[in-house]
Specification:
The structure holds 2 protein chains of 2 kinds. By secondary structure, chain A is an alpha/beta fold. Chain A has 10 helices and 11 strands. Chain A has a 9-stranded mixed beta sheet with strand order 3-6-7-2-8-1-9-10-11, with helices on both faces. In chain A, strand 6 (116-131) and strand 7 form a beta hairpin. Chain B has helices at 15-25, 42-45, 73-77, 99-103, 141-159, 174-180, 194-209, 225-237, 250-258, 262-265, 269-281; strands spanning 2-7, 29-33, 48-63, 109-124, 127-134, 163-167, 185-190, 214-219, 242-246. A 9-stranded mixed beta sheet of chain B has the order 3-4-5-2-6-1-7-8-9, sandwiched between helices. In chain B, helix 8 (225-237) links the parallel strand 8 and strand 9 (242-246). The longest helix of chain B is centred in the middle third of the chain and has 19 residues, at 141-159. Chains A and B meet through helix 4, helix 6, helix 7 and helix 9 of A and helix 4, helix 6, helix 7 and helix 9 of B. Bound molecules: iron/sulfur cluster (SF4) (2 copies). Residues 59, 75-76, 78, 80-81, 101-107 of chain A line the site of one iron/sulfur cluster (SF4).
Chain lengths: 284, 283
């Protein structure tokens, strides 16, 4: 079973729920796919056994072969290559903008002079280890790198389907979230009962409906704010799997990087109950 | 005209709440919400939309079933697993590179332009506001951010505004980079948690990478005094001014529920602190 934990809005407690759920269940593999700001390791404190650099392919031009025909510039949908043809007084030149490149490989395939080969550009790091009984993997995007989906996809290549896989997805509703949650059996959306929480929950629900993925909601700090999130879930027939009340102690534990189920063990049962509900939902 | 962007790395640190208060405190400015993925600032500023524009960006492959001979060339070349075995395109996965349409020997694939979202110019009681809504599950949020920043800049120049104030997105990826490029100052709103510190450090590094000066605010500073001291210590080390510390207060949530900016909803210490933050931010 693959469960991803997402939230339209950041800071609603997505990582908290993911980490505490992981610690409450058995035979878990944890994937932190929030590669722009990975945080789960701060709570799970894994012992990292191996590290791998992650690369994407980018074109490299062999200027000795390049005739400045401009075919690569024409076929690149992302304007990642600029070609200046030679003039009477100057030589031609060609430039690659690696930050715009999506690594699609079109240019190298279409270069008539075979002047383009693909080389690896490092975009981040994957670390693999164990946090007690939980197998742990996370990706970490290099600072200054713009595109996280290729790294997210590579983290997911390490998924072990014999375990209960828990994916901590990035916030938002655009490409990185899709890359993270795609292929999950169930998505758990973490929200809070505020207008911001509701606004962003509605967006996240739209995403999951578009992906036709079963989902449910966890309301964090359920007793602050207003009741509009509850009303929305009722009207939309959305399953509320769990409500976590605001508790200053939980906030303090969070701030120090301590998963709250370690101290408030009664929540383990609630996370297991939520997990059983998820199993029922996905069996439908 | 100066541009200030408010970012946080981690979501939920109170970035938009701070930006909302700046909207109420700063005079003669243009507000921009660059968190196009999950925009929230409009919930505080209550815009009246004046202009509405489509945001067209990127392409998606479309296969014409009548022309397709199922030769499999497209499937073999697509690096994004966007072509399904039944020769339909999974639009979520398609990055719009166009390789499939170039290699298809039967001309069965053409590239369709995406309507990737909408952007708006609005009027609010705090002045002009430029905002956007990225289509669900769309990419190119960085381009949409660049677009609305451009619009805000032109509007600001036309109005002879003193400031453009930008609410930035979470994370450190393409929309954040687009929000940061060329601004005069980045205000980082963080919280005294391990994750808050970790993410603030990363976003400070991104700002450094693009040579953007940084100032910092600690929100909910009294939730963990030890962590707050750690933030202050690393800011000292890196010469980052800490221009304010906001205490944890449930009335902040209450003001959000009311759809008001905090400075208008509360008085006392929090309001004073926010005024101090704005004074510290002025350039
Ligand atoms: S690999 Fe694709 S995106 Fe990169 S430069 Fe070549 S054509 Fe452009
Ligand atoms: S346009 Fe590129 S990403 Fe989209 S289906 Fe064709 S080859 Fe794949």
């Amino acid at each position: 079973m693959i469960i991803s934990i997402a939230s339209g809005k950041g800071g609603t407690g997505k990582t908290t729920v993911a980490v505490n759920l992981a610690l409450s269940l058995k035979n878990v593999q944890f994937l932190d796919c929030d590669v722009e700001e990975p945080n789960a390791h701060l709570f799970l404190k894994p012992r990292i056994a191996s590290q791998l650099k992650v690369h994407v392919p980018v074109p490299e031009i062999d200027e000795a072969r390049c005739t400045y025909c401009g075919r690569c510039r024409e076929v690149c949908a992302y304007h990642a290559i600029a070609v200046l043809p030679p003039g009477p007084a100057k030589e031609g030149s060609i430039l690659v903008f690696p930050h715009l490149c999506h690594g699609c490989g079109t240019c190298s395939l279409f270069c008539p002079s075979k002047a383009i080969r693909e080389v690896d550009k490092e975009i981040g790091l994957i670390e693999i280890g164990d946090a007690g009984p939980v197998s742990f993997i996370h990706g970490c995007l290099n600072v200054g790198e713009a595109m996280s989906p290729p790294l997210i996809r590579q983290v997911k290549n390490y998924m072990n389907p014999t375990k209960t896989v828990i994916i901590d997805a990035p916030p938002g509703t655009s490409c990185p979230v899709i890359a993270a949650v795609k292929g999950s059996d169930f998505c758990l959306l973490v929200t809070e009962p505020t207008p911001f929480g509701l606004n962003d929950l509605i967006l996240a629900v739209e995403v999951l409906r578009k992906l036709s993925m079963p989902f449910g909601v966890v309301i964090n700090r359920a007793d602050i704010g207003d009741d509009k999130v509850e009303t929305y879930c009722r009207e939309q027939n959305i399953l509320v799997l769990m409500r976590i009340p605001f508790d200053r102690r939980i906030a303090e534990l969070y701030s120090s990087g301590i998963p709250f189920v370690l101290e408030k063990t009664e929540y383990r049962g609630q996370f297991n109950a939520a997990f059983n509900l998820i199993k029922q939902e996905t069996a439908k | 005209m100066k541009t200030i962007v408010v970012i946080s790395g981690k979501g939920g640190t109170g970035k938009t709440v701070v930006t909302g208060s700046l909207a109420a405190l700063a005079k003669n400015k243009v507000m921009v919400d660059c968190d196009v993925d999950a925009a929230d600032l409009h919930l505080l500023l209550h815009p009246r939309i004046i202009e509405r524009h489509e945001f067209r960006s990127g392409h998606t492959a479309a296969i014409d079933g009548d022309l397709c001979k199922k030769c499999g060339r497209c499937l073999a070349v697509c690096r994004f697993d966007a072509i399904k075995p039944d020769f339909s395109v999974e639009s979520f996965s398609c990055e719009g590179c166009g390789l499939c349409s170039l290699v298809c020997p039967h001309g069965a694939i053409h590239m369709q332009e995406n309507v990737a979202g909408e952007w708006f110019v609005s009027d609010t009681s705090y002045g002009p506001f430029v905002h956007a809504k990225l289509g669900i599950a769309e990419e190119n949020s960085g381009k949409l951010v660049a677009k609305i920043r451009q619009v805000a800049k032109e509007l600001g120049e036309k109005n002879r505004a003193d400031y453009v104030i930008v609410d930035g997105p979470p994370g450190i990826g393409c929309p954040v980079i687009a929000s940061l490029s060329g601004v005069d100052c980045a205000l980082i709103v963080t919280e005294p948690t391990l994750s808050g510190i970790h993410d603030a450090q990363r976003v400070i590094d991104v700002a450094g990478h693009f040579h953007i000066p940084v100032k910092l605010v600690v929100n909910k500073h009294d939730l963990n005094h030890g962590m707050t001291s750690r933030i202050e210590a690393f800011c000292r080390e890196q010469n980052i001014p800490v221009i304010g510390k906001i205490a944890f207060d449930k009335t902040v949530v209450a003001s959000m529920v009311e759809g008001k900016t905090i400075v208008e909803h509360v008085s006392g210490a929090i309001k004073e602190e926010l005024c101090k933050i704005w004074e510290g931010l002025k350039i």
